[in-house]
Structure formats: C-alpha cells, structure tokens
Write a sequence for this structure.
C-alpha cells in the first residue's frame, strides 16, 4: 500500500515528558514545538502530502492561565519560525480552528503565514489552533444556514455530505488516511470527528517530544500492513468514500 496521503497527529505528552525530566511543563512544549518542525520535514521526505497537527484545542483554555499564556507566546514564536520554514521548504500552511479567540498579534502572524505560503507546492501543513471538532461543525452549520437564508443554497436537497464538507475548516483538504496519537492515551479529544470517519488509528506510548522520523516510519509501516475497508470493500476494489465523492464531483 502507498504512503498515506494525509496524516493527522494528536501531539500529546509534552507535559509528562518534561515532568519525567523534572522540568517545567513549558519546557516540554518548547521541545514539542521544535519537534513539529522535524516531523514536517520527515513527512515531506516520506512523500506524505498533507500533515495536520493538533496544537491547541478549544478545551485547552481550561488549563492553568499561566500555561495558556506561555503556550500562546510559544505559538507566536513558532508561527514566525514557520513562515521562514514554509519559504525554505516550499510548504503550504493553513490554519484550522477558530482564530478569533487568539490575540491580535498571533492572528496577524497566522494570516501572514497562510498568505505568504499559499502558492507553495510542497507539503500541505495544517495547524489546528483553538480547534475543536464540535465547534467546527457548529460553525459549518451556521454557514450553511446563512447560505440558505441568503439564497445561495436554494433547496434543502442541495445540502449534502460534499456541500457540508466544503463548509468545514478543512474544505479542499482530503480526509486523513492515518491518525497518530502520541503518549499513550487512546481518544480523539474532539479532533477532526467528521474527517476521521474512515481513518486508520495508530496509538503509541512515545511522548511527542521524543517522536522521531523513525516513529513516523513505523506508524506508516503499520498502516501499510492493514487492509483498509470502506463499508465492506477493500481499498483498491472500489474508490474510498471520499475518492468516490471527488470523482463524482
Ligand atoms: C500536548 O501535550 C500539547 C498540548 C495539548 C498543548 P500536553 O500538554 O497535553 O502534555 P500531557 O498530556 O499533559 O503530558
Ligand atoms: C489534545 O490533547 C489536544 C492537543 C493535542 C492540542 P490534550 O492533552 O489536551 O487532551 P486530553 O485532555 O488528554 O483529552
Ligand atoms: Mg495531554
């Protein structure tokens, strides 16, 4: 089987990684952010076309305010670095989630990142920031209702899986083929609930700051050994639900 076209990652375990070294949680986040850079390069080398990483969830605001503040600062400096990396490595960066709750400076840097990289043709890299799947779905429902009210959707029959997908933050991005969660927990934590409908799930105990190119290769190997099935059909026998949609449309 080929390499997965789209890999989504729940990068978890920064805090525990730091704690096991008797370091503050924030140190784990700093090392975690540096590792995002490493894994972007690894994914690109391996021929993965889309990589989506969960950086901050809509639930993460409930953390201690000091941790939230230092994470926001880190995201800002990370975004600045990412602007340079996107240029050097031809990466196209997009942001999913609701940016409106982020501070104005961070929002401006994110806009610069998206804008400055939009014509790049290498790895498609999605940053999930203040992202929550339920929030994304609710926002998509609101957009759909608005489009109906405006008259750009004329009848309820025009609301389909395809039209709804196009209202999500991931419009134009194929669904993930493989989801990886690091650090041992086996849950989705409100990540890409719609988009992961048919993804293969891979969990590893390795905490995110230690997750290396070798670990990514191992996850891809496990993925390649699996037989993907879509509603009773093996992959390859027939288009996946998404492929079928793309080919139809
Ligand atoms: C993941 O690491 C990073 C974010 C959610 C921002 P955690 O901060 O969740 O680390 P653990 O799970 O507490 O070890
Ligand atoms: C999920 O990790 C969110 C991100 C990786 C950004 P958490 O560590 O916040 O998830 P829970 O709280 O363990 O489910
Ligand atoms: Mg965690």
């Amino acid at each position: 089987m080929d390499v997965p076209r789209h890999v989504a990652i729940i990068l978890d375990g920064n805090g525990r990684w730091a704690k096991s070294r008797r370091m503050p949680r924030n140190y784990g986040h700093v090392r975690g952010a540096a590792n995002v850079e490493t894994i972007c390069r690894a994914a690109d080398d391996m021929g993965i076309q889309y990589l989506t990483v969960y950086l901050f969830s809509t639930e993460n605001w409930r953390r201690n305010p000091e941790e939230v503040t230092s994470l926001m600062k880190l995201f800002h400096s990370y975004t600045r670095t990412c602007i340079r990396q996107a240029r050097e490595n031809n990466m196209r960066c997009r942001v999913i989630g609701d940016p409106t709750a982020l501070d104005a400076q961070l929002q401006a840097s994110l806009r610069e990142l998206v804008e400055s990289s939009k014509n790049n043709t290498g790895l498609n890299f999605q940053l999930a920031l203040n992202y929550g799947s339920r929030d994304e779905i609710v926002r998509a429902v609101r957009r759909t209702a608005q489009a109906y009210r405006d008259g750009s959707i004329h009848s309820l029959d025009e609301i389909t899986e395809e039209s709804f997908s196009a209202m999500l933050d991931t419009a134009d991005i194929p669904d993930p083929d493989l989801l990886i969660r690091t650090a041992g927990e086996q849950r989705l934590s409100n990540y890409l609930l719609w988009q992961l409908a048919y993804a293969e799930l891979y969990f590893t105990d390795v905490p995110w700051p230690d997750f290396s190119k070798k670990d990514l290769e191992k996850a891809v190997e496990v993925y390649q050994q699996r037989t993907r099935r879509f509603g009773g059909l093996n992959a390859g026998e027939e288009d996946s639900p998404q492929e079928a949609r793309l080919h139809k449309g």
The chain has eight helices and eight strands.
